[in-house]
UniProtKB/TrEMBL annotation:
One BP annotation, GO: membrane lipid metabolic process
Compartments in which it is found: Endomembrane system
Membrane topology: Multi-pass membrane protein
Signal sequence bounds: none
Domain Fatty acid hydroxylase: 112-250
Gene Ontology cellular-component terms listed: endomembrane system; membrane
Name this polypeptide is given: Sterol desaturase family protein
Organism: Maribacter aurantiacus
Gene Ontology MF, one: glyceryl-ether monooxygenase activity
Membrane-crossing residue ranges in chain numbering: 41-60, 72-97, 109-129
Length: 329
């Protein structure tokens, strides 16, 4: 019975319906009008869409079962290994940096807009470093390995990525005056939308969303971000507002003549949990071990993926620059 209870609680936890179920059992439906009540109705949306997307894949005979299988294993592994670390890091960063906030903000609409722009800046920094520093890429690469795009990809993360990401984002937000309550609200909104932008073609074929494609980040933009095509490499680091990608020159729209090819440039057995989860860490370890001298060993850790002590660099910057030069020529 204990095993069944654990399984039941895990299923309820995955579906995100526990909070709503408690409100329903209490009979106090007015609770749905509170912020917590609204949250309880939104939490199940992404898990239910994952299930719907999987069913549609079976209907369309494009099941992508390998991706779902490995991403499910990653979800289960992370539930046991890294469940509370990210929450702890957010709490610590708030306590450490709140006394040093440069400005004071309040719970108004204009401070909310300011706060969201600041959050996106923190997200851009974390995400950019996750692609440009090989040590951080080892934490982030698990999310990019899947060779198909679908909602299950949102669960594919190395367990240490969330603490690293939330440390950077929380520190930036708190130092720039964001109130903790506003921070948690934005984290909730951004987390929900950040899951949705992984929606696959089985559910939404053309994910540009018309005119919205120009003013916000759509699933189409995020498909570009997950693509390994030279044109698309290391672009679209933002999550909802693409303002910082435009500011720093990393904005890229999906081109009709260049279909995104998902995955990473290293040859991966994408159906193997160990290769998907630990493959980049193992590859880095091998490069560090073989590199001559301490300077080169450190360079492999902190230089971009593709850097080589031989000078035969294959970083995304070089690959993309060569592609753009050939394309324009």
């Amino acid at each position: 019975m204990e095993v069944l209870d654990t399984l039941y609680n895990e299923i309820i936890g995955f579906l995100g319906i526990s909070q709503a179920w408690e409100i329903i059992k209490s009979g106090d439906y007015s609770s749905f009008r509170t912020f917590e009540g609204v949250q309880s109705l939104i939490f199940p949306i992404i898990p239910l869409l994952v299930l719907l997307e999987f069913v549609l894949g079976l209907v369309y005979k494009k099941p992508q079962t390998k991706v779902y299988k490995v991403n499910f294993l990653i979800y289960v592994f992370n539930r046991f290994v890294g469940r509370f670390i990210a929450i702890a890091m957010v709490t610590l960063c708030i306590g450490w940096f709140e006394p040093y906030a440069l400005i004071n903000t309040g719970p108004t609409w204009y401070w909310f807009i300011f706060a969201y722009i600041v959050w996106e800046f923190g997200h851009f920094i974390y995400h950019y470093l996750g692609h440009k520093v090989r040590l951080f890429w080892c934490l982030h690469a698990t999310h990019h390995v899947p060779e198909n795009m679908n909602l299950s990809v949102t669960y594919a993360h190395f367990f240490l990525e969330a603490p690293y990401a939330d440390t950077i984002r929380t520190t930036v937000c708190i130092l720039l005056g964001m109130e903790p309550a506003m921070l948690f609200l934005i984290m909730f909104i951004d987390g929900t939308y950040g899951a949705f932008i992984h929606v696959g073609e089985n559910m939404i074929k053309d994910a540009r969303f018309g005119f919205l494609n120009k003013i916000m980040l759509t699933p189409s933009h995020h498909r570009v971000h997950h693509a390994r095509n030279p044109l698309y490499m290391d672009t679209n680091f933002c999550n909802l507002l693409n303002i910082w990608d435009r500011v720093f020159g990393t904005y890229q729209e999906e081109q009709t003549d260049t279909k995104p090819e998902y995955g990473i440039t290293r040859k991966v057995n994408s159906g193997n949990f160990l290769d998907v989860y630990f493959g980049e860490i193992i590859a880095l370890g091998k490069d560090v071990w073989k590199a001559p001298g301490v300077k080169n060993k450190l360079a492999y850790i902190f230089m971009p993926p593709g850097w080589s002590h031989t000078g035969e660099h294959k970083t995304s910057k070089i690959v993309r620059a060569n592609y753009m030069a050939n394309r324009s020529g």
